[in-house]
Amino acid sequence: MQALKRLIPVTLLAVLTACAVPAPVAGSAPDTGSVLLVREQADPPQPLLEHPGRPPANGYVWIAGRWDLLEGRYRWQPGNWVAPRPGQVWQAHVWRLAGDGWVQEGGRWVPDVNRLVRPRQR
């Protein structure tokens, strides 16, 4: 019984430590040119609600914040406004369950397949 009384606080501490989510940390703008793949066992936290406000100019694109894995911990990288890229759309960062862990696919600019196609000149 005495051993059980000592084990309860240790177990409680371990459970609470495993559930802790780090505080948001300001970060840099997202990588807009490459695909980043990161593997992690623990579930990524839900995205934080952001209020982007008004864009700095017409046509600017809001790139939502994301959870990145830095030094073994999830860190919030806030969103930001970026200038549009003609003929491209922003594809957001995504966490996908893959086997026994999570994989992050970094956000990137991709060709806009829904863009109107000009008719051919005859």
From TrEMBL:
The protein's name: YXWGXW repeat-containing protein
Residues in the signal sequence: 1-20
UniProt keywords, alphabetically: Signal
Pfam families reported for this sequence: WXXGXW
PROSITE patterns for this protein: PROKAR_LIPOPROTEIN
Superkingdom of origin: Bacteria
